[in-house]
Structures are given as structure tokens and as C-alpha cells.
Amino acid sequence: MFYWVVKAILWPFLHLIFRPWAEGVGNVPKEGPVILAGNHLSFADHFFGALFLPRKVISLGKAEYFTGRGLKGMVSRAFFSGVGTVPIDRSGGKASEAALRTGLRILGEGHVLGIYPEGTRSHDGRLYKGKTGVARLALESRAPVIPWAMIGTFEMMPPGRPLPKLGIRPGVKFGKPLDFSRYYGMEDDRLVLRAVTDEIMYALMELSGQEYVDKYAASAKADATKSRPDAAADAARRAKGPGRD
User: Fold this and answer.
1) Each residue of 93-113: pLDDT tens digit?
2) Is the CB of residue 50 less than 8 Å from the CB of residue 201?
3) Which domains does the chain carry?
4) How confident is the model at residue 78 (pLDDT cuts 50, 70, 90)?
5) Sheet strands side by side (includes 57-62)
6) CA geometry: angle 160, 165, 166, nearest 5 deg
């Protein structure tokens, strides 16, 4: 219920201020389990990604969103609960398996599960190599996979920018369902998981128009920071815009 209350509050405000748009909403089944596999460009994705869907989208988010203290922690918990985020431990190992089981439970209950295969937000607006967890979810649940592409949210609210820029219309595109039935029963094959994941990322690349980089986003972000110690400061200055230093 809280999800729909938050959405009812955000809908008129976001439409009035940002005039968002959507394509392919009809590609998302009206009932039954669905995996929305999306690119992740900005914090703004949490606002606009599911705005046009008549179904609740449940996503998996890091547990730290729900463990903060004080007013900031309370606001964070309320926001991420309101946008349908379920907390998970992302420390790897057994935690990764637990996250997978949580995703399978959500799908088993017939819900829409939103997932970002890149694992983190893109630091430069490009599309990065997907992690194979999305493939395991698709093959074990046998739920249809819908490519879910955010458009313009990186330009609106790049990393380091606390507030969105005005004058940019964000959009979201829902691609046609991807069929992986030829791989059912092969979810323990690493080559199959990689093939399925790459097919999903290729569909996202075509839908979003992003440049694809065959490298994990977290590694690329770390490399960029190492090669340019002042990269974070530069990104923050660009996000502020001219004349705001």
C-alpha cells in the first residue's frame, strides 16, 4: 500500500516538472512473474523507471539503504521502501546466493522484479558488462525478461549531483520479452549464463543507444578514479554546471 501512496504523490509532481515519457509499456505482461533488466545511469532511475507501469516493481537494493541512523536514515528507509526496494547483503559469497533466493522468491510470488545487471550506476553514461545473476534468475524462474532502458537520466542527474537538472525530459523504454527457453535446465553452466547475460546487455545497448564497454562497471569506475585522482572533484564541478563554483 505504501508503494502506491508514494507513487500517487510523485506522479503529478514528476509529470508537471519533468514531463517524462515512455515507450513499449505494453511489452510488460499485465500479470505473472516478470524480470525487468535495466541499465543504471542515475539515482533518478528510482523515480522514473517504474512511473508508467500499472504494476508494482520490486527491486533489490543494498542493505545500507535501510540501516542508517537519525533523520537521514529514516528518510532513506522510507524512500526505498516507498519505491519497492527490498534490502539485500551485497558482500558476495553466501550473501550473493541469498540475494538470488530473494529474487526467486519475489518472482515465485508472481511479482515484477527490477534488476540492474551492471551492479552499480554507470560513472560515465556508458553501458557496462552485466553480471550473470540476472541469467540465473531468468533460467531458474523461467520468467520473461524485459529490457528496461533509462534515457536521459544521466544527463539529468549524473553521479555527484544532489539535485536533478531542469529542462531535460527523462524517458524509459521497455523492449520486447526475451526468450531463453532453449537454455532451461542449464543454469549451472557458466558459458550459458554468460551467453544469456550478454544477450540481455546487447538488447539494452540497442534499446538505450549507449556505447557498450566489455568491462564491469565497478572495475571501470575504480580504474578511472586511480588514473585521475581529481576525477570525483571534476565530476562534481560538471554536475554543478557553469558559474556555480
Assistant:
1) 666 788 889 999 999 999 999
2) no
3) 2-21+33-240 (3.40.1130)
4) confident
5) 21-23, 171-174, 145-151, 34-38, 112-115, 57-62, 85-88
6) 170
